[in-house]
Structure formats: C-alpha cells, structure tokens
Write a structure and sequence with these properties.
2 copies of one chain form a homodimer.
Chain A lengths: L8 E4 L4 H12 L4 E5 L18 E5 L17 E4 L6 H6 L1 H21 L4 E7 L23 H20 L2 E7 L1 E3 L7 H11 L3 E4 L6 E2 L1 E3 H14 L4 E6 L5 E2 H11 L5 E4 L12 E2 L4 H4 L9 H19 L1
Parallel strand pairs in A: 1-2, 1-4, 2-3, 4-5, 5-6, 6-11, 7-10, 8-13, 9-14
Antiparallel strand pairs in A: 9-12
Helix pairs in contact in A: 1-6, 3-4, 5-7, 7-9
C-alpha cells in the first residue's frame, strides 16, 4: 500500500480519539475511508461531516459481528483495526471484556479481511504486551512477553493472530505498540480522569498508586504520523514498531500540572502502592529507534505532550461553559 | 502445590497421549485426578481402568462449555490444561479451529479456575510461539514472538491470558513450551503419519517438504517429568519453561528410520519446499538450561526418542495383527 492509493481503506474504531485523527489524515492523503465503529467510546462528532465529505462513510457496527459490516471490507486496500476496549482498568474487573472486544473482535476482523482478500492489516497494539519489562527503553524484540493486564493479554493475542494470518494468507501485518497516547477527544486516560475528578470535587485530586508510576506519553498526531510512515516505508510480512517518546513523566508530575492548570487549589492525595490498579505496569519507556530509522521522530516529548493536552482540555472546558 | 498433596487436580485433555501419561504419574504420586476430555483425539483406553482406580474420574466434556465440567474444578489444587486441537496442520485450513479449541477454550478454563479459586494453572504451550527464531537454541526470553501458524497464535494468546490471570488473581501460572513430543498413543505427528501412509501404500512414503526440516523431539516421559519438576521446584507468579532435547533430527532421517523399520522397501518422495505445510517452522531447537538448573535432564536424545517411538509403533502394529 501507499497511503496515497485510491482503493478504499477501512478504519475500525475510526470515531475514537486516535481513529478519527487517522481518518482525517487518510482523507487528506486522498483516500476513501470507511469507518466501522460501535460508538461505545467513539463519537460521531469526532469525524468530519459525512455530508461534507463524500469519501467518508460511517457504519455503526460491532467488530464482533462481521455480518453487520463485512461488505465494507470488499475492495479495501487496507484495514486499520483500532476498535477495542479502551479502558485497561475496566478489563481488570471482568476478563471477558478484553477477551470479547480485543481478542475475539480481532479474530473476526482478520477473518473478514482474509475473506475479502484485503492485502494489509494494521493493528494498534500496546506497550503493555511487554508486561513489566526488565529492559528500558524496551525494544521490539524484547522477551518474554508476559502481559499483566487482560488488556495486554488481548493485545498479545491479537498480535499473534495477525502474525499467523500474515504467514498463512500473505496479508501484510503491521503491529504498532503504543506508549500512552494523549490528545484531544480522549474519553479515558490519566489526564481525562484527573480533570473529571476535579470537576466532581475541585478541592482534592485522588491519584491511584503512589504517583511514582513513570511512563512515556505520545501525542495523537505523532502517533498517527508514525503509523503512516511505517505503512509507507516498510513491507515485511509482519512489521512490529514501538511508538513513543524518548522521555517519561510521573503520575505525580502530571497531577501537579493538572492541579496548577485547574487553579492550583486542589489537594493531591495518593492511594498508595507502586501500581495504580491491578495489572498496571508502573514503568514504561519504549525504544523507538526502529521507527526513527525510517525518518519518523516524535515532535512532542512526554512533558510537552502532557502540557499541550492539559491546555487543550482547559480550553475545551472553558469553551463548553 | 507439591505434586504430592492430597487435594484433587484437574487434567483437561487427560485422555490424550501426553495427558494420560501425566495422569498416571499424578496418580502414582498419590493425587486424586479429575480428567476432562471431549475424546476428540483422546481415548478412554489411554486411561487406567476407572473401576480399578477410585482416585481417577473422567468427565466427557468440552472445555469451551464450562457448565458441563465446572463443578470438577471445585476444591482442586491445580488445573493442568492440555486440551487443544492437537494437529497444527488442521488449523492451517481453518483459523477458527485453533481459535475455538485453543484461545477460547483456554479463556474458559482460566475463568473457571478463577471462579473456583484454583491456586495453580499449568498450561502446555509450544515452541511454535517463537515463530521462525533467529536464535538456536531458542531461550525462554526470546523475542519477538511472531507465530506463523494459527496453532502457534492460539498458544501465544493462551500464554498471555495465563499471565494476566496470574497477575490479576494470584493464580500461579506455568507455561511449558514443548518441542515435538513423541511417544505411545499419539494420534498425530510425523511418526504416526509416516506409518499411516505406509499402511495405505507400502511402496512409497510421501514426505511433506524437502525433508530438511530439523527439529527436536522429546519423549512423553521426559516431557511429563520436566513439567512435574518445574511444578515442584518453582513458584514465581508466571513460570515459563522450554521442554526439549539438546539435539535435532531431520524429517529425512526420520523417514529413513521409519522405512527401514517397515521393511526397507518403500521409496521416499519429497513434496519439496523448505516447509512441510503453511505455518510449518522448519527449524526448532530449544534452550533447556533453565529447567536443567532445577535438576531435570532429558533421558532420550531426539534420535533415541525417535528410535524408541518407531520400535513401539512396530510392536503395537504387530500385536494388533
């Protein structure tokens, strides 16, 4: 695939925060884009106006039910599979959530892609496939892969299936292992959660864990650009890429930044323990030199990505008042 | 768990070639053993007589349907989950076979173990999680894990789920990555296939691929002993062990040994190509020093394991005449 070719591309989860940004980029490159989204966490309003953009369509469907969307795979040059349970913590309460919406849904998406001879399948995986890594920054060939969350287990399962489909049917697979992705339109994640908590109680901000969790945060635009660079410039049977920044930032620093942006009055309270929740991996920093060798570089550091996302959140909140 | 404790243990796939050997060893160590097997490839006659062995029970049930066997998990000190599609090549024809009988079945087994507070879950994985490894012998921390078969994808998915359940619920997980296991009672695999082909046409033996596929073969008794040693002597949250021999043997050598044992008249014909079938990984040799440091050593080399298995097959065939 060149991202510039004229055959339609499918984006599952295309109404989500990352998906809708990807959709806009694909449209800007001239692609016809078919979005499949069950709108469970995606939002119709994240997408450009369907009446104003004839090359864009939205099918409201669940990836677990191919009968409701399979025709959209016909003639597609690529399937970008982003749809998933987006909330890692939700999965810790019920393992079936990530099994159904991650593992099983990805199997159905792959089977549908195969039946329609779609030549490329691009999957958004996660750094959590590494479990608690003993090597930082963690390279793509790190092992063993022992995820600590059901979300991570589903991402690993999906990666393995992508690899098997690639080898069995010649589908070219791209596995993108994300750091924490932040940007506009998020409906989950640490910055979203912090603002949500302060909206409910402006006097205190509860931080899960001891605040020392230290992770890499990548802006949505850097993330999407990285995926497009990889899709344009590599074509192995299976292409695995980390996507992250070179730096980390702690939950404590993020909390302090959010409180400052919120007026500086809230008291920060830590629930304690090194992990924010069962299955939380408190350290995360990905080696990104593989993708950088293709010419991609993140424009925002983790600190800058957090700052920008906080600014946007404050602006959006003020605009909504 | 000590393998000697008195609480019952569950063995799924316990009527299979490896499972039934494990069942006998567990009984010999004093355990009460509850076998769950759908008898799709397992055989009732592999097990000791149920009337003669009051500590053994067999529930004919499919692991995908917990309602039909869940009560057997009650009070168990361990679940050994061996049930799976045993024929890698079958999965290459329909990806759903390994998804259903591997990935989904393992999820249900883990969920059932969790609901019944079973403290240990021991899973038989495979060397095929390594895909086509660039390092031989391949160590447990090898990455990336990009399986080339649906069987391998299901094993990797199951490993990830075991790891997540271990971290979320404190279930202790054991992941055993098998070389090719051979011994009595097999209903699939290269030696079984070769004899089956010669039974149908004694004049020629078709070998899939060019015969240069070179893999490690471990005897059932060495395999089961290795698992029991690991279960007795380690207790990390997640315990990953390779199980194999220090040597390899080619498909060509095995074919020549089988033909010689069959009277030496058959012509060997190769279908060509480096792989026996789509998803076949033609080289396999596992680093086993991690398990050897616990005191286990394979008694049979690959060559000796093949010789013994051929002898047994000839004897069983002659006895059946």
């Amino acid at each position: 695939m060149s991202s510039h070719d004229s055959a339609p591309v499918v984006v599952t989860g295309g109404a989500g925060a990352v998906g809708s940004y990807l959709v806009r980029e694909l449209l800007a490159r001239g692609s016809t884009v078919r979005v499949i989204d069950n709108l469970s966490s995606g939002r119709r309003e994240h997408l450009p106006s369907l009446s104003g953009e004839p090359r864009l369509s939205l099918t409201v469907a669940d990836v677990r039910e191919p009968a409701s969307y399979a025709e959209k795979f016909r003639g597609a040059s690529a399937v970008w599979h982003l749809a998933a349970n987006t909330d890692i913590r939700l999965g810790s309460a019920d393992p079936r959530v990530d099994f159904d919406h991650g593992t099983f849904a990805t199997f159905e998406a792959l089977e549908t892609a195969r039946r329609h001879d779609v030549p490329r399948f691009l999957f958004t995986s996660s750094s959590v496939v590494y479990g608690y890594p003993s090597v930082l920054p963690t390279p793509e060939d790190y092992g063993p892969l022992l995820p600590e969350s059901f979300y991570g287990a589903a991402k690993l399962a999906a990666e393995g299936m992508c690899s098997a489909f690639a080898h069995a049917y010649g589908i070219r697979a791209y596995l993108f292992r994300f750091a924490n992705i932040i940007g506009p339109g998020m409906t989950h994640g640490v910055i979203y959660d912090f603002f949500e908590k302060l909206r409910q109680d402006p006097a205190r901000l509860e931080v899960l864990g001891d605040g020392n969790q230290s992770k890499s945060y990548l802006r949505t635009e850097d993330c999407v650009e990285g995926m497009l660079v990889a899709a344009d410039r590599t074509s192995d049977p299976v292409n695995v890429f980390n996507l992250g920044t070179h730096d980390r930032i702690t939950a404590r620093e993020i909390a302090e930044k959010v409180v400052a942006a919120h007026g500086g009055r809230a008291r920060i309270e830590y629930t304690g323990g090194s992990r924010g929740w069962p299955g939380d991996v408190p350290v995360q920093l990905l080696a990104v030199d593989k993708l950088e060798r293709l010419g991609w570089h993140p424009r925002f550091s983790s600190a800058a990505a957090v700052d920008r996302t906080i600014e946007e959140t404050v602006r959006a909140r003020d605009a909504a008042r």
